[in-house]
Every structure is written in C-alpha cells, then in structure tokens.
Amino acid sequence: MAYQLVVVGTSLGGFEALTVLLGGLPANFPLPLAVVQHRGSSVEEPSSGVDLPLLLQRHAELTIADAEDKDALLPGRVYLAPVGYHLLVEEGSVALSTDRPVWHARPSIDVLFESAADVYGAATIGLALTGSSQDGAAGLARIKRQGGLAIVQQPATSASRVLPDAALKGTEVDWTVPLGEIAPLLRRLLGSPASESPTGL
Amino acid sequence: MTTPTRDNALEDMEIELLLEGIHRHYGYDFRNYALSSLRRRIRDRVQAEQLRTVSGLKEKVLHDPACMERLLLSLSVNVSAMFRDPGLYRAIRSAVVPLLRTYPFIRIWHAGCSTGEEVYSMAIVLQEEGLYDRCRLYATDMNEAVLRTARAGLFPLAAMKAYTANYLQAAGTAEFSRYYTVSHDRAMFNPALKKNVVFAQHNLAMDGPFNDFHLIVCRNVMIYFDKTLRARVHALFLESLVRFGFLCLGSKETIRHTHVETEYAAFDAREKIYRRIR
Q: Which residues, in sequence order, are bridge partners of residue B266?
C-alpha cells in the first residue's frame, strides 16, 4: 500500500517537536501532512492569538498554513488544525467541525486520526509526538487497526510522555523513535518500495 | 488520489441506508452532508442509544420518532458562542454597519442559526449602533428544537464569562451583563433583543429562497456539507442577496473554489466578509 497521508498529533512540547519534525522534511515531501497541536484552552475562545503557522514556517521548507474547510490535500503542504476547530479529512480534502471537544480538546487528535483511519485506511501514517493527555492514543490504535503505520516519539525524548506512553500502551506501534530521527525515518519510508515492512532502524 | 483500502466500507453502506431511510420516512435530507463529521455524530448516537451498529440505529430511528428527534439534534446542532470570532463583530460594527445605514430598512438572514448565540450577538451590535429598529433579522434552522432554545434566549450562565470576554474584544460599548438577567444556572437575554427577530424553520438542503437580504450570516454551517450541497446553498444565497449585499462565513471557510467566487469581492478577507458585486 502506498502511503497517501501523514497525520500528526501533539500537545505539550509540540511546538518544539514540530519545528524538528517539519524542519527535517524537504519542500518536495511527497505527502500532505495534517497536524493537530492542542492550542490554548478547549473552551470557546477568540481565534486571535499566536500565529502558529507563521512561527513554524520559519523552521520549515514545507508550506504551512491553518487549514480552511475543504482545502485540497496536496503533497508538501502542512494543514494545521485551527484554534477552536476539529480537523478531519475527507477523500482528497480537509474538513473542519465545531463539534464538542474530545478529551477536553478542540482540535482533538483522536478526531483527526480516526477520520484519517476511516478515509485513508492503510494509506495513513499516524504520528504521535510529545503530549500531556491521552488524546491521540485511541486514534493511533484505529489507524493501526485499519492497516496504517503507527509511529510514536520515544517517550524518553518527549517533553511530556503521557501521549507517547498511552499510544504505546494502546497499540502495537511500528516504530518508536527519538524526535530527531522521525523526519529521516519518514523520508526513508517514502523513498522505499511500498511492500517493505518495517523491521528496525 | 487512488482508492485506499477501507475496512469500514460496510459501515459506510449502513450510513448510506440510514440517510436514505431518514429522507424517505421523515423528509430530512442528510445525504449530502460531509461524511467525516457525519460518521462521528452517527457513531456517537449509536453508542448513546446503546446500540451496536448503524443498522440497529436505522431500525430504531425508523420505528421510534423520539429516537429520530434525538438523532436530528445530534446531526444538526452546530455548537457556537456569543461573539465567536470577535474580530468579525468589530468589522461589522466599523465597516458593514455604516453601509447598512444607507438603507431605509434592513433585512438580515442568519441561516442555520442553531441555538441563536450569534443572532443575539448581532442584535446587540445593531442596538448599540442605533440601527436595530430599522432591521428585521430572520433566524432560520432546520430543527424546531434548537429554534425553541433560540427563541427562549436562555443560555448557560457558566458561558457568560467567556461571552463577556468575547463581547469586550468585539468592541462592545456597554456592560455585557446588562443584556441578561440571571435565573438559576441560566442567563435570560433581554426580550427587546428579539423584538425584530423572526425565528423560522428553513432547511438549507431542501428549501428555497424566501426574501431579499442585505446581509446573510451563515457561519460554520456549510463545513458540515459536502461540495455539492455547499454549491446549492451558495446558489440560494446569491439569489437571496441584494446587489452589494454582504455574506459572512465562518473564520475558516472560504468562497474560493466555489462556482459563485466571481460574484463576490472580499470585503474583509480576514473576517470572511464577502460582498456581492453584481
């Protein structure tokens, strides 16, 4: 199965983790990346505040922006879940929702991961980075169940290990790697024949 | 994109059958709703009804109107807040209201108003700008139950702190607390705010135009629609807007890549206020 989408979830410590991950990927990265970083509190809040896409863009060659509803998913682009919205995917595009928070979070990582598992199934690469809640663990397990690839940031190298630990507990992940090695791993996986199974670094 | 492997094809088929059944039996058309959010909402409902499958939900919904009511609520309630995206209300106050003033009588349509938070927000802005008495606001939703809530003007007291912060950021000119009275755990909004509001049932997926408007507000409603249904609604809005009328979308919605794109100019691109130009 050729991979078609990378989904990334992170909360506490996520900004630093995302700068390392996204900074390690080339502008011609062959897949779109949909990213949930918990931003601010979960309750209704103004959409103003820190310009996360702009801050991340300084560290990356990929094109990074807050997702707009029904944006086409294009390779080399990073779609960030906007403040106050869940980010989901449909076939070939993103979708937003203002439905209730999940795990006190909106955006919620589980919501993104579950929709990716539903729509892209085995063509999904799910990536759980540092995070201080277990939001994302169930979603990663679902990606795995649907035949996708599950990657977790090594808990010891995570600013907060709650999400990595929960993800490892919740499913048989394919890879557990230090933060700095995730981008090289993705580059290698996507340059390899699709049939190759992960056997180790 | 190539077609991915999908182990949940069976569930997707069950959802299709459920929507078909609802349409034929109850007349509500969810067949062109965006699937990802719909799937989540339906799964939540399956759990809440203590059922195992979407097929089980279909059977219960078709034979038990009360269950349909509950499903309708979970499929159609869009969560919002008073003065959500305060920048929008600042822009309406400073840039749209001066242009609306030029009309002797102003009609505003809140399409998909849900429980009415944004309708009351608009009413407050219009009142503070001295324009309210010349306005009629049409607040429509497909769901009678949410319209009842909207009509009552009762919102959770616990939300008032966040709403007050939004109101201040939206350049409100009064004390926010003067707009409501407290009754137990609810805030009841001043009935004068709904004096010129008409709450009515209207289904964007099925119903047609019913008036000409100077401003249409439809925020975070079409995010739940697929591209086909969104196109239908945009056609409806175009038909319902006067020339140089305004259309407000949600902060992460865009008119780009829709068939009506060239009919509008971005009046305030950041706040997603568009103006009909022909």
A: B274
